Amino acid sequence: MKKCPYRILIAVMIFMSAAMNYAYRVYFQISFIAMLDRNETLKEGEKQPDYGPRFKYSHWEEGMIIGAYFYGQTLSSIPGGPIAEQVGPWITMLISALINASLTLIAIFVTSENWVPLFICRFFIGISSGVQYPSMQFLIGTWSPPLEKGKFTACLMGNVFGSVAATAITGALVRWLGWKSSFYGMILVTLIFCTFWFLLISDYPTNSWWCSKEESAYIMASHEGRITHGKVIPPFLKMATSIPYIALIIGQFGSLWGLNLIVTSMPKFMAEVLQFELQKVGFLSALPSLARLIMGFVFGTTTDLLLRKNIIKNKAIVRKGFVLFSHFLPGATLFCYTVVGTSPALAVSFLVIMLGFNGAAVVTMLVNAQDLAPNFAGTLYGIMNCFGSTPGFIIPAINSKILEKGSSWPQWTTIFCIGGCVYISTGIIFIIAGSTKLQPWNEKKMKAEDATPAVT
Predict the structure, then answer these.
(1) For the chain, which residues make up each domain, given as ranges?
(2) Between vectors from CA 296 to CA 386 and to CA 433, what angle results, nearest 5°?
(3) Under CATH, domain 7-42+52-453 is a member of which superfamily?
(4) Which region, left, alpha or beta, applies to residue 405 given φ > 0 means left and ψ of -120 to 50 means alpha?
(5) Residues of the chain where predicted confidence (pLDDT) is lower than 70
(6) Which single residue of 74, 131, 350, 455 has CA 20 to 30 Å from 216?
C-alpha cells in the first residue's frame, strides 16, 4: 500500500505524552532542591542563592513530599487501564493533563512550612497521571501494525525526553527566575500539549478525521483479529494467575527501580556528593536519560528489523535475550560504584552507560503486554505500572534511612548496590517465566452484536 504518514503523527503524540508524564515527576525534583532551607549545611560565609521562599522540612518530610506523586500514581494505575479502555484514551489523557496543570497552579500558593498541602497537591497529580500510560498503551495497540510495535513502543521513551528537558530547563529557570517559574512553565507547556492532543488524536484509526481510509484499513487488517473493538470488563482473575504476566510485572518493577533511582535521587547525589551547582545538576542528571532515549529507539528499530527480515523468527528470543541489556548490564554497572571512588566524571559516565543499556526495556518489558493480550494492553500496563511505580516512594524511604547520618560516598554506594541486585534478580525471573504467546484470555467475551473485529 501507499505509505501514509498519519500514524507517525500518532507516534509523535504518544512520545510527547510520555514526555509530559515524566516532566511532571522530574521538574519537581530539581525545583524542590531550590525550595529547601539548607543554612545548616553551608560553610561559614556561604549564602543560599535567592531562588524564592525556602522551607525547612525534616528528612522524613522531604521523602514524603518526593514520594507523594508515586503514592498517587500507584493507587490510580490499576483502575487507569479499565478507565482508558472504557472511556477512551483521547478524553482520559486530556482531562488528566488539565487536572495536573490546575493542581500545579494551586501548589504554588499553598506551599509553606507545613509540608502537608504540597504533599496533597503532588499526591493528586500522581493519581491523575496514573491513567496516562494505560492510555498510551491503548493507542499503541490500536494504531501500530504488529511489525512496527518496536518503534511505536520506543515512543514511550518520550519519558526520557521529558526527563532530559525538565531537568535541563528547570535548572536554568530556577537559577534565573526562582523555583516558582518552573511551576508556571509546566502549566504553560501542558496547555499547549492539550491543544494538540484535542485536535489530532482519536482512539481508533477508523474514528480519525485525518487518517486516510487506505491507511486505516491497512492498520486494522494488520491486527489479524487480535484486537476487537468493544467494552468489556477485563479478566482480572486470569491476569492475576497468569505466570507470564506476573513475570512481566516483576521485570517491570526491576526496570523502573533503576529509572526511579535516577529520577528521585540523582539531583541530590550530584548536588551533595559530587558538589555540582544547581545549573549543572539539571544538565548532568539529564545525560543518563538522554542515553536511554537514544538507545531505546536503536533497540526498537533493531528488533523490528530482526523480526521483519526473519533474522530472528521467535519473538521470545528477542524479549528474553535483550534482558541482557535492559537488566543485567545496568545492574552490573551499578555495582561498579563500589570501585570508582569519588570521581565525578566516572560517576556520571556509569549513569549514562546504565540507562543507555536500559533503553532495551522498550523491546523487553514495555512491549510485552502487547504480546500477551493486546485487547487489554491498557489494563495490563496499568497494573504493572502500579507495581512499577512503588520504587518511586520505596527508594526515597530507603535513602532517607541510609543517609540519616550523612550523605557521602559510602552511603550512596550502598544505595547503588541495592539497585544492582534488584535489576539482576528481576531480569532472571522474567527470562525463566516470561512469554510472548498470545494468552487465551485476550479474547473479549461479549454479545455478537456488540463486537467489532479490528478488520475492515
Answers:
(1) 7-42+52-453
(2) 50
(3) MFS general substrate transporter like domains (1.20.1250.20)
(4) alpha
(5) 1-5, 38-46, 48, 225-230, 263, 267, 276-286, 340-342, 445-456
(6) 131
